[in-house]
TrEMBL record:
EC number of this enzyme: 1.2.1.22
Protein name, as recorded: Aldehyde dehydrogenase B
Alphabetical list of InterPro entries matching this protein: Ald_DH/histidinol_DH, Ald_DH_C, Ald_DH_N, Aldehyde_DH_dom, ALDH7A1-like
Keyword Cytoplasm part of the UniProt annotation: no
Superkingdom of origin organism: Bacteria
Gene3D superfamilies per record: Aldehyde Dehydrogenase, Chain A, domain 1 (3.40.605.10), Aldehyde Dehydrogenase, Chain A, domain 2 (3.40.309.10)
Residue ranges constituting the Aldehyde dehydrogenase domain according to the UniProt record: 30-481
Sorted UniProt keywords: NAD, Oxidoreductase
Primary enzyme class: oxidoreductase
Any one Gene Ontology molecular-function term assigned to this protein's record: lactaldehyde dehydrogenase (NAD+) activity
Organism: Rhodococcus aetherivorans
Segments crossing the lipid bilayer: none
């Protein structure tokens, strides 16, 4: 039993407050809390027939929703944003129970949902196309954007609700229904969000069937991936998952938006403000117990600062409280499960074999119950070996040393992933050179790699998958573009001056 109370009861109460029914306890899909390993629910997973019927219902809803003007579609998302705000603490409670995030980070994740709803409401009046000059007299050339179709959202455990909201708020204003396959580890937050969206739809008179949740594992995801009625598969998770999903969607010429693993690096130059760098590095590397796609995993520090920097980070790590996320003062909650712990141990062993020196952490922390807790680790590495080039989804920060800036960039870009990156420097030239050279989708100056705002496009290059979601013009992935040529003359001039008859 967890000292903070019966977690199942807490989850059931939060779900009820969100308008969802109490979680089933007699299904085949067991949901446990990483806090103490206790059972939260036994849900009934979707079967193949459920996937088929769900996609059919979403396709039918598309026929209605696409006819609703975008600013009217925005009303649904505005109402959803209001309800998310009203139930912020309930949703955050579920995020902590299912994903183990500390309450402040869980609340931050829900705030991100509210923010993206605001963004999407504004967007609903700004789905702009361009008008281009036509080469022909009496002609107009323009592009128009149209709803795409059913969007399947496949999400990861570590951002159980934010990723859904980035996709769903935008998809809905773009005219697309959503079928959500949440992580098998965090389906309760999905059921709560679904209940709130259903309520919002009822409140604004939106058509039924715009949103669906399918509980299940990879097999349910694959059924969605293969369904030709699904126009866009937006899949967030490991590179391993992306390697399976991408070719299957491509085989049916569907659209894919991939948000896969990262292996994020930060360069600390000789002129860096080390006070600021240490604070940023500690949050980026140890926050969320190292389980963010944008977690800082590689610190590339100039030889003149590397010793002091490492020492100061280690000192800051020694003050991080690890434990039950509901306990006051705890900053590092549990790993998601024992597999994550095994992966961390293996990575640390490999790093040691490669000549790495453990500076701090890496050991397990005993906490009542069956949760898995570790002290975040810092390892000095003599080189960027294979283990450093892989994403281990746990709090390990590898520290590498460089002498010249080109060497730092080569180390930084010398990994297969390309999600987030940072430089700490007070040298403007160095900062600009870094922004031009980083091969990541996100490149920052004097802030850490994690904690992006919703206003920008989020995503990464190389094996991170190339997708962009959330702000800026990411909405274009959720619509189809048509180029229109209109002849308002009495003549029929052909393009490129072609004569025919
Ligand atoms: P995961 O790949 O194990 O699972 C992610 C989702 O994909 C789950 O819903 C899972 O059921 C589904 N899935 C797995 N195999 C599938 C298949 N063959 N077909 C269809 N669906 C399948 O990832 P995880 O452990 O939940 O999350 C951690 C990973 O996600 C890390 O690699 C992290 O970097 C990445 N991540 C990336 C981003 C990003 O925006 N780039 C955000 C969050 C997490």
């Amino acid at each position: 039993m967890n000292p903070t109370g019966n977690l199942h009861d807490r989850a059931a109460a939060a779900l009820r407050r969100c308008g969802a029914s109490a979680p089933a306890l007699d299904g085949a899909h067991t949901v446990t809390s990483p806090i103490d390993g206790s059972e939260l629910a036994r849900l009934h997973p979707a079967r193949a027939a459920d996937v088929d019927a769900t996609v059919a219902a979403a396709s039918a809803a598309f026929g209605h929703w696409r006819q609703v003007p975008a600013p009217m579609r925005g009303r649904l998302v505005r109402r959803l944003g209001d309800l998310l705000g009203e139930h912020k603490s309930d949703l955050a409670e579920l995020v902590t129970l299912e994903a183990g995030k500390i309450p402040s980070e869980a609340l931050g994740e829900v705030q991100e949902m509210i923010d993206i709803c605001e963004f999407a409401v504004g967007l609903s009046r700004q789905l702009y196309g361009r008008t281009m000059p036509s080469e022909r007299p009496g002609h107009r050339l323009m592009e128009t954007w149209h709803p795409l179709g059913v969007v399947a959202v496949i999400s990861a455990f570590n951002f159980p609700v934010a990723v859904w909201s980035w996709n769903t708020a935008i998809a809905l204003v773009c005219g697309d229904p959503v079928v959500w396959k949440p992580s098998e580890k965090t389906p309760l937050t999905a059921l709560a969000c679904h209940a709130l969206l259903e309520r919002a739809a009822g409140d604004v008179g939106a058509p039924a069937g715009l949103h669906h949740v399918l509980v299940g594992d990879a097999a349910v995801g694959e059924a969605l991936v293969d369904d030709p009625r699904v126009a866009l598969v937006s899949a967030t998770g490991s590179i391993r998952m992306g390697r399976i999903v991408a070719p299957r969607v491509a085989a049916r010429f569907g659209r894919c938006l991939l948000e896969l693993g990262g292996n994020n690096g930060a360069i600390v130059g000789p002129s860096a403000d080390l006070d600021l760098a240490v604070r940023a590095v500690v949050f980026a590397a140890a926050g969320t117990a190292g389980q963010r796609c944008t977690t800082l995993r590689r610190l590339i520090a100039h030889r003149s600062v590397v010793d002091e920097l490492t020492e100061r980070i280690a000192k800051a790590y020694s003050g991080l409280r690890v434990g039950d996320p509901f306990d006051d003062g705890v900053l590092v909650g549990p790993l998601i499960d024992g597999r994550a712990h095994a992966a961390m141990r293996t990575a640390l062993e490999r790093a040691e074999l490669d000549g790495g020196i453990l500076v701090t952490g890496g050991d397990a922390v005993e906490v009542p119950g069956d949760g898995v807790y570790v002290r975040p680790a810092v390892v000095r590495m003599p080189a960027q070996t294979d283990v450093v080039r892989e994403e281990t989804f746990a709090p390990i920060l590898y520290v590498l040393t460089y002498d010249g800036f080109d060497e730092a960039i080569a180390l930084h870009n010398g990994v297969p992933q390309g999600l987030s990156s940072s430089i700490f420097t007070t040298d403007q030239r160095e900062a600009e050179r870094f922004l031009a050279a980083s091969d990541c989708g996100i490149a920052n100056v004097n802030i850490g790699t994690s904690g992006a705002e919703i206003g920008g496009a989020f995503g990464g290059e190389k094996e991170t998958g190339g997708g962009r979601e959330s702000g800026s013009d990411s909405w274009k992935a959720y619509m189809r573009r048509a180029t229109n040529t209109i002849n308002y003359s009495d003549d029929l001039p052909l393009a490129q001056g072609v004569e025919f008859g």
